[in-house]
## 1
Amino acid sequence: MYDKILTSLSYGMCAIGSKGLTAANACIVNTVIQISSYPMTVAVSINHSNFTNECIRRTGLFTVNVLSENTSGAVIGALGFTSGRDGNKLDNVRHKILQEGVPVIQEDICCWFLCKVVHSVETVTHTIFIAEPMAGSESIKGKPMTYEFYTKVIKGKSPKFAPTYLPEEEEILEKHTCTICKFDYIDPLIPFEELPDSWICPICGAPKSVFRKME
Ligand SMILES: Cc1cc2nc3c(=O)[nH]c(=O)nc-3n(C[C@H](O)[C@H](O)[C@H](O)COP(=O)(O)O)c2cc1C
């Protein structure tokens, strides 16, 4: 399917620190990009289901911690596969808390910066937070970890709420087919039933009501 071509895109691995209601939180992302230099602006894409999304919305602040090739897989496991809603993920991850209440990870990262949200954009699944760095480390240590290094060297995977998540073939249990153009809707992140009534077939524009569930 054409979704596989997106695996050709390159990404860097980061941890996003945020302030929860009772404790600091952090999650792994591979979607931090630089938007501009003047003003210095970055963006990050955070799934609506992640606790981090809620934390950033409430405070308008987050840290970007750029992981290095020396950051251990255990840190990625702790921050990328469990939610801050279910407990304090930073209990076993060395960190400090800035006066703004957001954490800076201290586990062999390259550098960090504190960001203030200036704008946000909603997609069906994610919020893109656009933000300006306000403070950060003065130098870069080590080699930034790329997503390719994570998948090929560490042999890491992406969980369900990561933008790069692709289901294993056997996980695809059902599909809905457009009775007009035969386009198959197969998406584990948004079940067909949860798509809005206004959703239309991306190929022929037919309404959602013409789709039929295929066994
Ligand atoms: C390699 C990798 C990349 C990820 N990239 C993102 C991302 O860009 N955006 C996102 O919302 N979640 C991403 N995730 C998933 C979150 O880190 C994960 O859902 C985490 O448990 C969310 O924690 P929270 O609920 O405490 O925010 C990624 C996870 C991994 C392991």
## 2
Amino acid sequence: MTERWPSGSELPTEPVGSLPRPSALQRAVLDAETGLITQAELAAAQQHAVEDTLDRFAATESPLLSDGEQRRQSFSSYPLGTSLNDGSIAEGPVFAVFADGHHRVIPSLARGPFRYRGWAADDVVAARELTDLPLKQAVISPSMLSLMVPQQGLGDYSREDFLDDVVSGCAEDIRRCFAAGAARVTIDFTEGRLALRDDLRAPWAGPEALAGFIDLINRVLGELSSELRTAVGVHTCPGNDNDSDHSADVDYAELLPELFQIEAGYFLVQAAGEQDPDRVAKLVGRQLSKRASRAGGAPRVLLGVTNPTNPKLETAEQVSEQLVKAARFIPAELLGSTDDCGFSPYLIDEKPRHGSPDFARDVAFAKIAARVRGTRLAAAELNGAAA
Ligand SMILES: [Zn+2]
């Protein structure tokens, strides 16, 4: 079996998943929609972006690479496939209102049954042809998919049948990612923190929704072997789109006790963009102590050490300092690093604080390189302290 985690004194580090699509690719997607270029020309632009992403990722010396989700419209809509104009998908309710005032909606299923028509695993297959280096893959959470059908179901297609289809599809996608060669797979759970935000414009949210989400994710994890489950992570964040967030005002003290009810092998927790990253480590450490006595022990936690909504570069020294301080609360053997979020969860993303998607792409790779170097520095320091 592929080695899932580094051994010895190294600290694991990995990206969340997405990277800004080059301006040329964003343009090509819009041109393909209006018929100005062919689907073959669009596929060539996507392939070029994936090749460039994997090359630049390798240059950061990141131990795990991702394809940056260059072929995806968004982190959430890919299971619906690319033919969104056949009447099977309608515009759904508001998903999130971001701090800058813009919003995103949830695609909604116009008729049942729900079947996966696009697989994250296909991106692993395509990337595997381009690199021998270890890959990670992000998949959409069953909780996000659960918002695509109303509580009363769709005609004869009941809500219960729909959720069964969501759970089995999501578990199948994860198994396919591993079969295609992914070393680790993470479930995007951006709607976790958002669920606790009081906002009447997002009617799906609330503490009850959060409990239902956690139950659904645990159902998916329950369909996987315990061996695979150790390599499945869950990502929490306050969102990232157009360099803005959707739920930074929700206190982690409310979310984390619920989040750690998820039986994942590890967690990717946004922290660098918080006012006090050290407080996040402290709150996480408290939850890990509670989990330690349970079967399977405490999960690993990769803390976010770079902030994708802000173009200011974190230095390797800052990354290292954050991790070394975090190790006061989180045992070093459970600690690692990641980015606070995907660098561009949606394909069309102007990255206004960065000035352009292309510059944001350069910044993202510089941040990833700093994360990789800083994590190595932290491991050396923590190892020296232990010796
Ligand atoms: Zn995120």
